[in-house]
Amino acid sequence: MIRSPALLLLLAALPPHRRDMKLTYRSVTAGATHTCGLAAGGAAYCWGDDAFGELGAGDERSRAVPVAVVGSEAFTSLSAGDGFTCGVTTSGLGYCWGLSTHGRVENGPQPRTDAPVPLVGGLLFAQISAGANHACGVTIDRSAYCWGVNTEGQLGTGDTASSPTPLPVAGRLSFDSVSAGWGHTCGVTANRLVYCWGSNQFGQLGDGTREATRVPREVLGVHDFVSVSAGGHHTCGVSARGTAYCWGDNFHSQMGRTGIETSRLGRWVPVAVAAGHRFVTVTAGGLHTCALTLDGSAYCWGSQAYGALGNGVDDRVTNALAAQLLHLRADRQCTTVHSIEADEANLMLRLTL
User: Fold this and answer.
1) What span, in angstroms and rounded, lies between the C-alpha atoms of 179 and 338?
2) Residue 21 is assigned to a structural domain of this protein
3) Is the pLDDT of residue 4 over 70?
4) Residue 316: its pLDDT value, please?
5) What range does the domain containing 152 cover?
6) Residues sharing a CB contact under 8 Å with residue 58, sequence separation 6 or more, in sequence order
């Protein structure tokens, strides 16, 4: 449990009857302007912007402290997107809440809900990933489904028709996990290959081209991925050997490399992050990337705007870049970083202090 001045201030802001409430989080997920955490017993809590009901608290009132998601559902995982949140319950059902709960559409009024609503179809999910305006998930039989806006082919259905309900991803591939980004989606298959689909303006699909695709296309070069994370216009993954790779947009050095071999125009196939570290996970945000090493150390690289790299620098004027891996600055001692998640303006760490 975190014990820090920041936590004491948080507790002081709580009503008296809630100050003795102690939450231990199993995981956290950072969306565009809100954050959610999964507490012991499967209870979900969210905090931050609630303009569209993404906190799931039964209203649309933003909070600076965690608020319980309404309902009786117990969750095994959560994923915060841009204005909405999704989760998988202990029974395997998928729920979403916030802006266009069952996936946004590109035209017309955007439906919203301020409480969890089950996904249509009764599919049993093992994992769900919420992106900018679409979401994807893997069912217990390892099939991938996506729903929401599909203008870039990010649903992987073979066309660009948006859908408010989950649709099967083309190709009948067997996935371990999927990751929904801004306009593209990537997934790791059971045989450790990565496939991506959707927007490819910056080479974020990793297939050696900048051509968008409406169906999954294999990422070139690396064949032993254990995880993948789709960000804004770049993608990163970790191999079974602990090597971190990134591909796509590198204008803000979010690939963790500079030089002729990558350039600030990016790279259309995976390139190893320049470091001598073994990583366990990597998360691609909007303009930056963060990762965890085997010893629990956190490193970030890319844009330093809004203090996104956690190194004590907030450069919103020149938006200075940091191509080298920056070890997160610690204002107080910590023993372990358990998990990390980055988004456009958020950096969320789970620490043991």
Assistant:
1) 20
2) no
3) no
4) 59
5) 30-352
6) 70, 114, 115
pTM reported for the whole predicted model: 0.84
Within-domain flag for 226: yes
Measured between alpha carbons, how far is 301 from 129 in angstroms, rounded to an integer? 23
Distance (Å) of CA 15 to CA 36, 50, 65, 179: 20, 20, 11, 37
Contacts of 94 (CB under 8 A, 6+ apart): 86, 87, 88, 118, 119, 123, 125, 128, 137, 166
CA distance linking residue 87 with residue 54, whole number of Å: 12
- Asked whether 294 and 282 are in contact (CB, 8 A), the reply is no
The span from the CA of 161 to the CA of 105, in Å, is 9
Report which of 254, 267, 341 is spatially closest to residue 303, judged by C-alpha positions: 254
pLDDT at 331 over 70: no
Give the tokens for residue 154.
């990010």
CATH of the domain at 244: 2.130.10.30
